Amino acid sequence: MSEIDIIAAVRTVLAVHMNHPHLAGFAPEARLNEDLYLDSVLILQIFLNLELEFGLSVPEEIISRQDIATVADLAALLARGSAPAPLPVAGEGVHGELDYDIKVHCFVSCLCDGLKKRKLDHRPFYFGIWDTPFAVSERSQLLYHGPGITQDFFKTWFERLYGIAVEDWYDEARSKEQNIETLLTRVAHRPAEGSVMVMLDMFHLPERENKFNQNPFPHYLMLEESENPAMFSVLDPDYRWEGEIARETVLNAVRQPTVAGGYSFDGSAAHPPEDADVRAYFEACFRPHDNPLADRLREIVRVHLAGRGGLTLGDLPLAVRELPVITIRKYAYEHGFAYFWRALKLPAAEFDPWCDEIEMLIQLLKTLHYDCMKLGQTADTGLAAAVLRRIDEIDAQEFKLKRKLGVIFEQWCAERFPSDLAPEARRATR
Predict the structure, then answer these.
(1) pLDDT tens track for 356-405
(2) Which DSSP symbol is given to 350?
(3) Is residue 427 predicted with pLDDT exceeding 50?
C-alpha cells in the first residue's frame, strides 16, 4: 500500500472499526496524541485493524516505536515496512553531568523534583520502581493503581535516604471538601522550598496531554498559588509540564471518587544519602528471584484461555489495557545501572549495551501487548502459544538485567564496605 492508501485506511479504521470521536481534525499532518487524542493503546488498535482488515504487515519494530508524531509519520513507516531507530545524541554518557532523567512514577517524580533543584543525585530512589506493586482485579485485569496500593514504602525510604520529612495531609476519614480545604490551606502557606502534592484524576484535566488516555487516571502532581486567584500554578514532574490551570478544573479532578491522596514536604534540608542507607534500600526492594509482572501476565493469559470466571479471550485486551503504564517503570533499571556504574567508574562504553538490554525488555512488553490484543480480537487459540513464549522471553530478559545489576551492586558493596567481607574475600578484592 502507498502512503496515501495507508492514510485513507487509517481514517477508515478510526471511523468505522473504532468509532473514534475525534476525527474532525484528521489530516496527514494531524498529531496522533495532541490533535486526535490517540494514546499508545489506541495506536496499537489501529495497527491491529490495519493488519486484520487490510492485510497490512506491521513489523514488531514499528509496534514499539515511540517517535511517531503524526498520521503521515505512521503511514510513512508502514509503507516502508521498517525503519532504523533514531540515533542517540552523543554526550558524556553515564559519567557526565546528571542532565538526563527518566520519568516513570508520578509520586517518586514529585519527590525527586526537589532533589534535582538542589543538585542531589535522585537515582538511588528509583531502585525497585521496576517492580513497583500493581494490582490485578477480580476480573483478572492488570491495574497500575488499585485498592491497597499505598506510597508508604517510598515515603519512609525517601525520609531515610534524603532526610526530608514527608507529611501525609490527606485524611481518608474526612470528606472530600474537608480535604480540599486542607489542600487550599497547604498551598496558601507553602514554604519557599516547599511542595504540595495532590492526587487527582487526570482524565478530568482536558487541558493536559494524557499519553495513556486512561479513565480513570490517578496521578500525583504539585500545586502552587498563581498571580491570578482563579488559577493554580501546576507542576507535573512526571510529564515534564508546568503551567496554569483553572482552580475549579483542578479541584474537580481532585473531587473525583477515583482518587484520594496528598503529601507535603520541604526540600530545603535535603542531604545526599549515606552509603549504608543506599545499600539497605536496594536490599529492601530488589527481587532477584522473581518477576512479578511476567508472573501475573502469564496467569492473566491462562485464565482467559481457560475461560475461568466466565472470562473469554475477547476480554483479554481490556485485561492488559493498563500494561503500558506499568511497562514504562522498567526504564528505572537504567537509573539503577547508572548509579552503580558511575560510582564504580566502570567503562562508559560498556554501559550503553545494558541500556539496549533495558530497551529490549520494554520493546518485548510492548509487542506482548499487541500480541494479547490480537489474540483477544481474533479469539484464535492457535496464537496463544506464541503469546506465552513472549512472556517467557520477557521473564528471561528481566532476569538477565537483574543478574547483572546484582553483580555490580555486590561490587559496589565490596568497595564501600570492605570490612564486611571475610578475610579471604578482602584479599581477593585487592
Answers:
(1) 999 999 999 999 999 999 999 999 999 999 999 999 999 999 999 999 99
(2) G
(3) no
| Phi, then psi, of 38 in degrees rounded to 5 | -100, 120
Please name the residues in contact with 191: beta carbons below 8 A apart, sequence gap of 6 or more: 266, 268
**For residue 173, which amino acid is it?**
A
168 bridge partner residues: 263
Could you tell me the end-to-end alpha-carbon distance of the chain, in angstroms, rounded to an integer? 63
User: Strands 262-266 and 218-225: what pairing?
Assistant: unpaired
Alpha-helix runs per DSSP H in 163-274 = 176-188, 247-255
CA distance 77 to 404: 35
* Interatomic CA distance for residues 202 and 211, integer angstroms: 10
Q: Which residue in 61, 38, 58 sits closest to 49, CA to CA?
A: 58
What is the per-residue DSSP string for 164-219?
--EEE---TTS-HHHHHHHHHHHHHT--TTEEEEEEEEGGG-TTS--TT--SS-EE
Number of Cβ within a 10 Å radius of residue 188: 10
Q: Name the pLDDT band for 69 (thresholds 50, 70, 90).
A: confident
Going from the C-alpha of 360 to that of each of 33, 293, 355, 401, the distances in angstroms are 24, 16, 9, 11
Q: Where are the beta strands (DSSP E) in 98-138?
A: 135-136
pTM for the whole structure: 0.85
- The model's pLDDT over 99-137, given as tens digits with 9 standing for 90+, comes to 556 668 999 999 998 888 888 999 999 998 999 999 999
Return the C-alpha cell found at 355.
541500556
Kindly indicate the confidence band of residue 351, based on its pLDDT and cuts at 50, 70 and 90: very high
> Can you read off the three cell numbers belonging to residue 34?
495532541
Lowest mean pLDDT among 45-49, 56-60, 253-257: 56-60
Report the C-alpha gap between 378 and 367 in whole angstroms: 16
- What 15-20 contacts at long range (C-beta under 8 Å, 24+ apart), as own/partner pairs, is 17/49, 17/53, 18/42, 18/45, 18/46, 18/49
Contacts of residue 430, Cβ cutoff 8 Å, sequence gap at least 6: none
Q: Nearest CA to 106 among 234, 215, 197, 223?
A: 197
Query: DSSP assignment, residue 36?
Result: T
- Strands 166-168 and 142-143, by their bridges, are unpaired
Structure confidence at residue 89 as a pLDDT band (50, 70, 90): very low
One-letter identity of residue 14:
L
Euclidean distance between CA atoms 123 and 266, whole angstroms: 19
Is the predicted pLDDT of residue 344 greater than 50, yes or no?
yes
CB 199 within 8 A of CB 257: no
- Comparing CA positions, the residue from 287, 273, 278 lying closest to residue 128 is 287
